[in-house]
Amino acid sequence: MKHISILIPKKAILGSLEGSRQLLTQVNQFFLARNEPAPFQVQLVGLTKETQLSGGCFTANADVLMNDVKKTDLIIIPAFDGDIATALEANKNFFPWLVQQHHAGAEIASLCMGAFILAATGLLDGKKCATHWMAANAFQKMFPDVDLVTEKIITDEQGLYSSGGAFSYLNLILYLIEKHAGREMAVLAAKVFAIELNRETQLSFMIFQGQKEHEDVEVKKAQEFIEQNYQEKITVDELTSKFSVGRRNFERRFKKATSNTVIEYIQRVKIEAAKISLESSRENVNEVMYKVGYTDNKAFRNTFKKITGLSPIQYRSKYNRAV
How far apart are CA 231 and CA 245, in angstroms? Predict the structure, then answer.
């Protein structure tokens, strides 16, 4: 039997905590219904016996306190809400215990914003990690040594797992169920809970938010210029000339400040504008393409799919109610 410890972080979101518990305990019921032993022992592990969740709307009762868990096989870190720095400070007593358990052989899975707690332990340094796309800028700023792959639904890095935003955590729990209880049980759980299996990307859900929480004035002006003139063909040379900065120095500073190259930033701003048009208007793909400053149909479609994971037509079909 695999021992699974679901943490109860302070400021935790009830959904990812209870959703994980429900899925895992339901798998136990599947096995018991077939007169087979349950594969999981699931415990809620807290720093205190009672922990307030979701801004105080709910209270979770721990089955066991953290210091009483000497050995476990899999630790699940649910998402939290509110101010990130405050949440990390409130949950810092988990950090050494997580490191100790992982070094003793435990796997650890972070759900959505739970990635901040896992990253704060240092265990993710040099490894890939996913989290909610809305928190990407904050995550990169706080944990520059972690390879953030915002587009991913799931990462699996040598016993350290993470999931993308919000309800994407369900896909990670299914992934863990398949790994530890078999594909048949993962499929059955997906059907019972009506979860789409094998989702790999959250690209189509992402809204580009230019990173402006930096102090580089010229780069910030360049970002604003790009965002105000995305309909035009903007080049790196044009920007360096406009802001009187050497090209190599400008590109280095831009990447450091925004986590994007200049070209990537221009593409993302244009594609974000295209997404809005495809969601809200009846313009055809070519009209949208010209509107955001592309003239090459193939380049537009390739860039759009690279950033969103969908073709322009697929994206419009998925998100435009008027179609």
Answer: 23
Distance CA 42, CA 53 (A): 19
Q: Would you tell me the crossing angle of helices 297-308 and 312-319 to the nearest 10 degrees? A: 50
The 3-state secondary structure of the chain reads CEEEEEEECCCECHHHHHHHHHHHHHHHHHHHHCCCCCCEEEEEEECCCEEEEHHHCEEEECCEEHHHCCCCCEEEECCECCCHHHHHHHCCCHHHHHHHHHHCCCEEEECCCHHHHHHHCCCCCCCEECCCHHHHHHHHHHCCCCEECCCECEEEECCEEEECCHHHHHHHHHHHHHHHHCHHHHHHHHHHCCCCCCCCECHHHCCCCCCCCCCCHHHHHHHHHHHHCCCCCCCHHHHHHHCCCCHHHHHHHHHHHHCCCHHHHHHHHHHHHHHHHHHHCCCCHHHHHHHCCCCCHHHHHHHHHHHHCCCHHHHHHHHCCCC
Residue with tokens 């993470």: 162
CATH code, 217-319: 1.10.10.60
Is the pLDDT at 109 greater than 90? The verdict is yes
Domain borders along the chain are: 2-204, 217-319
Query: Which residues have a Cβ under 8 Å from the Cβ of 93 and sit 6 or more positions away?
Result: 47, 66
CB-based contacts of 81: which residues, under 8 Å, 6+ apart?
Answer: 11, 13, 54, 55, 87, 113
136 and 173 in contact (C-beta within 8 Å)?
no
Lowest-confidence pick of 59-68, 124-133, 151-160, 174-183 = 151-160
Q: Which CATH number fits domain 2-204: 3.40.50.880, 3.90.1640.10, 3.90.226.10, 2.60.40.3080?
A: 3.40.50.880
61 phi and psi, to 5 degrees?
-105, 120
Q: Assess whether pLDDT exceeds 90 at residue 181.
A: yes
Torsion angle defined by CA atoms of residues 183, 132, 209 and 303, in that order, rounded to the nearest 10 degrees: -10
